[in-house]
Amino acid sequence: MEARFRRLPLETISQLLRVRQAAFGGARRPHVRQCTLRRLRSGDHHLAPARYAVKPFLAAAAFLFAAGAQAQDDVLGDIVSPDLERREIREAKLDSENIEISTFGGVINVEDFGSNTLYGGALAYHINEDVFMEAAYGETELGESSFERLSGSAPLLTDEQRQLSYYNLSLGWNLFPGEYFIFDDWALNSSLYLIGGVGNTSFADEEHFTYNFGVGARVLANDWLALRLDFRDHIFEHEIFGEAQTTNNLSAQLGFSLFF
Amino acid sequence: MFSLRSTFLHFLCAGLLLGLSAAAAASGPGLTLPPEGVPVDAELVTVRSPYVNIYTGPGRGYPIFHVAEYGEKLWLLKRRTDWVKVTARRDKTGWVRIADLQEIYGEDGELVRVPLPDFSDLDTQHFHLGFSYGDFAGASSMGATLGYRFTPNLSVELRATQAVGDFSDSQTYQVAVLHQPFPRWKLSPYFMLGTGINITSPNATIVATEDRRDTAMLTGLGVKTYLSRRFALRAEYANHYLLTSRENNQEIVEWKLGFDVYL
To answer: So what's the architecture of B31-112 in CATH?
Structure first.
């Protein structure tokens, strides 16, 4: 279609349009002519002119044929024949890697119960280059509180009650993406992120609604393997010592993650 | 003698030429063979925009270290968020913004599009995943939802909520149908109907009671607003009507604030 438009001199086309206008009793729809010609001149005519131009041309062709204007027939046949080629579009076959699974180990300090080993895992979905959402799970075993140690009385919690587990849903923001440079040869992609969310901490037969926020660094060894260092504050309220008390429980954890 | 030498020279030249042409023939298709480290089934496309920037990482902050020019071939390797990992000639491997890949063509000259989930593409069916935070009859609650949109107006959601309160903790698991009458509005309202179970465990320190498991009917309404192509904020009011085995049924009011991500 394009090639055929180019082959035709603009004068011929404008002449045809004038004929068509006469056939319909003057410039009843003057925009048709202007619009078609403007588009032809500007070269913007891959699909749109066909839509605009074919109908008037059909009308013109019918009129001219009836009037016996033989000379124009071939030209019109060329224009009218609907041999539009559709633009072929295909979706790329691409694997997407937006999910990050990680496992970590570290230390968590549960207020009054000492610092203890923490381990767990997390599943993250990367929404865009800036934001990711993460569901995490962690476990630790609480130590003795200072009250238990100093008073020498019976322990406050049973061994089973000392098992602490938490899970949370958080939103992370890759605040400072960048590169870390190691010696001469290595430039590792990295990001420093802020993260925060809500969750649940379970210990001493109780559930505790927990807010968490923190900061972390992710260093990518390659596209799919990363090292993660995380610092979090887990804030919850408990009543183990009689009255409600809000506690800040800090954790530091080191882990690695896989993207898939 | 002379003629013999010239014949020999001719043969040598012919041999050299043959060898060269054979080498050229071998390297001809070799140009489109993927370089080392690129899988054989990797998508090969030709750039038809003036140029495409290649970054060292999938993010706007990473440096541009290479530029693929008009007519250059790229192997598409994988996608991460809004970026595609590509290998260009001379083994240059990096990341390209999907928005820069509007004009790439496949081996048969067809336009190749890199698909990206987009809420505004209402005719496609897709999943969304969301987290929420709220108030469940005075208790703090956290929730997760997984939804699937069937039509521009209708979607189905699996919802799980955990609420921790002063007197009792609750867990709810529900299936709900959402109807969005005006999906194209910037602030689009929705109505919800669902059913599920509520598990309530009174806090043991107050009175020793058993966990209750009740069937719940869910009604609700909410509003969604899209912050970006794939990220929507939502606020919701829900009414849980618990069909208890006790004398009276119980009604619980829940307020929620959360976000949805289109997968």
So the answer is: Roll (2.30)
